[in-house]
């Protein structure tokens, strides 16, 4: 004998399947970005939600079935509970595959087979929970087809969940929804194919030991499970959003700390550490270049007579002129309180000297330091790679030892220092 279906519960079972599928997609995408105990916790919640959703769909689908001869449907409690545990374990395996760092095609197929077998086992354990005498009979071909559908559906679900992020943030929700609708069809297809494989002998009677009785449980189960799963998804969404906020704040703090470690806070130029690292990289390329060292001689005088804050403003304004005048430089950095480095592409010392003179000529106006005009005095030293040296220590030392003094103040243009290379 064959039974019939209550279409409203069939539709309800599909809705539960869609919610379960959406949960799998959602948790799969979110849990992958977590780590440690937080990942373990939400992994367990995700597996429970997905397993409960698949099991609820099965249970609602069973309740949608109207038994022949108007028999009242009943279930063995232990087998029903066992089917739920199997669903959760199978879902955990699927979620593990979804959230793993890498998943090759052979691994996906193996996970799909094991997960599909778990869903298949859950379904027929739930069917066996409907104990009766004589026992229900099965069409082996349809049982096999339902197993194939379970494996294929799980494989498709794993593939979708692994690739859903490629859709982009703009279409993410709609792609997830469409994927959940398709997966819902696959889940229901497996269940109702399995139900089609069942037939009941005319004289069949439900076992007296079945403790879960009545067809009334379908609708409450569908509503309760859907609300429960959606509530957990909402809680997870809020938690993940908070985790994302904390993660972004941490990244911003780390970026600020990293910037502070390699940049001068007054001029916002790279500092000595960053400069030496960059110099090593440039040397590694084996291309010739000139290293320009500028010593801001008037810094200490400014600090002595007008205060450190005024001197720092002098350094900041001076650094802006460096950026504007040596825009084509490889690198500009602040080496010390009074020292600046400029890396130039040219290895010709006369060209570098000319660029330094042009720097003075282009900036023949005084610097505006907090509303007051000031003509800074600075010295310029040169070294060239590879003629002056082939390592950072020699290049920096050469540039700092022999310097030419410049002033942007009218009349005094260039005065030679008496420093000599040791």
Automatic annotation (TrEMBL):
<feature type="transmembrane region" description="Helical">
    <location>
        <begin position="173"/>
        <end position="194"/>
    </location>
</feature>
<dbReference type="InterPro" id="IPR029787">
    <property type="entry name" value="Nucleotide_cyclase"/>
</dbReference>
<keyword id="KW-1133">Transmembrane helix</keyword>
<dbReference type="Pfam" id="PF00990">
    <property type="entry name" value="GGDEF"/>
</dbReference>
<feature type="domain" description="MHYT">
    <location>
        <begin position="5"/>
        <end position="201"/>
    </location>
</feature>
<feature type="domain" description="GGDEF">
    <location>
        <begin position="287"/>
        <end position="422"/>
    </location>
</feature>
<feature type="transmembrane region" description="Helical">
    <location>
        <begin position="214"/>
        <end position="237"/>
    </location>
</feature>
<dbReference type="Pfam" id="PF03707">
    <property type="entry name" value="MHYT"/>
</dbReference>
<dbReference type="GO" id="GO:0016020">
    <property type="term" value="C:membrane"/>
</dbReference>
<keyword id="KW-0812">Transmembrane</keyword>
<dbReference type="InterPro" id="IPR043128">
    <property type="entry name" value="Rev_trsase/Diguanyl_cyclase"/>
</dbReference>
<feature type="transmembrane region" description="Helical">
    <location>
        <begin position="77"/>
        <end position="96"/>
    </location>
</feature>
<dbReference type="InterPro" id="IPR000160">
    <property type="entry name" value="GGDEF_dom"/>
</dbReference>
<feature type="transmembrane region" description="Helical">
    <location>
        <begin position="141"/>
        <end position="161"/>
    </location>
</feature>
<feature type="transmembrane region" description="Helical">
    <location>
        <begin position="41"/>
        <end position="65"/>
    </location>
</feature>
<keyword id="KW-0472">Membrane</keyword>
<dbReference type="InterPro" id="IPR005330">
    <property type="entry name" value="MHYT_dom"/>
</dbReference>
<protein>
    <submittedName>
        <fullName>Diguanylate cyclase</fullName>
    </submittedName>
</protein>
<feature type="transmembrane region" description="Helical">
    <location>
        <begin position="6"/>
        <end position="29"/>
    </location>
</feature>
<feature type="transmembrane region" description="Helical">
    <location>
        <begin position="108"/>
        <end position="129"/>
    </location>
</feature>
């Amino acid at each position: 004998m064959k039974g019939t279906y209550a279409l409203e519960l069939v539709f309800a079972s599909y809705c539960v399947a869609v919610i379960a599928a959406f949960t799998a997609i959602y948790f799969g995408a979110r849990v992958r970005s977590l780590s440690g105990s937080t990942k373990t916790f939400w992994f367990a919640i995700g597996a429970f939600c997905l397993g409960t959703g698949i099991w609820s769909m099965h249970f609602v689908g069973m309740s949608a079935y109207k038994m022949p001869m108007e028999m009242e449907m009943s279930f063995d409690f232990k087998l029903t509970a066992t089917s739920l545990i199997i669903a959760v374990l199978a879902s955990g395996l699927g979620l593990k595959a979804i959230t793993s760092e890498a998943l090759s095609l052979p691994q996906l197929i193996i996970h799909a087979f094991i997960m599909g077998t778990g869903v298949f086992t859950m379904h027929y354990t739930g069917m066996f929970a409907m104990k009766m005498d004589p026992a229900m009979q099965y069409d082996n071909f349809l049982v096999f087809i339902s197993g194939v559908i379970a494996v294929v559906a799980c494989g498709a679900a794993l593939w979708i969940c692994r690739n859903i992020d490629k859709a982009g943030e703009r279409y993410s929700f709609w792609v997830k929804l469409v994927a959940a609708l398709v997966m819902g069809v696959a889940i229901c297809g497996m269940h109702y194919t399995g139900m089609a494989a069942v037939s009941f002998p005319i004289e069949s009677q439900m076992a007296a030991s079945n403790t879960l009785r009545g067809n009334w449980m379908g609708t409450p189960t569908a509503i309760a499970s859907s609300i429960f799963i959606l509530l957990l998804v909402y809680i997870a969404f809020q938690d993940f959003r908070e985790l994302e906020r904390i993660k972004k704040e941490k990244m911003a703090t780390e970026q600020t700390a990293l910037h502070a470690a390699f940049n001068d806070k007054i001029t916002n130029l790279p500092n000595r550490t960053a400069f030496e690292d960059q110099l090593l990289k440039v040397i590694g390329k084996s291309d010739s270049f000139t290293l320009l060292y500028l010593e801001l001689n008037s810094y200490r005088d400014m600090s002595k007579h007008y205060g450190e804050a005024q001197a720092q403003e002098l350094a900041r304004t001076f650094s802006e002129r460096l950026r504007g005048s040596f825009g084509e430089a490889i690198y500009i950095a602040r080496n010390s309180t009074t020292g600046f480095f400029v890396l130039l592409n040219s290895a010709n010392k006369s060209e570098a000297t000319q660029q330094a003179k042009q720097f003075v000529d282009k900036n023949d106006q005084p610097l505006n330091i907090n509303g007051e005009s000031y003509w800074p005095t600075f010295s310029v030293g040169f070294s060239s790679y590879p003629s002056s040296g082939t390592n950072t220590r020699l290049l920096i030392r050469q540039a700092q030892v022999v310097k030419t003094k410049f002033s942007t103040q009218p009349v005094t243009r260039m005065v030679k220092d008496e420093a000599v290379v040791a």
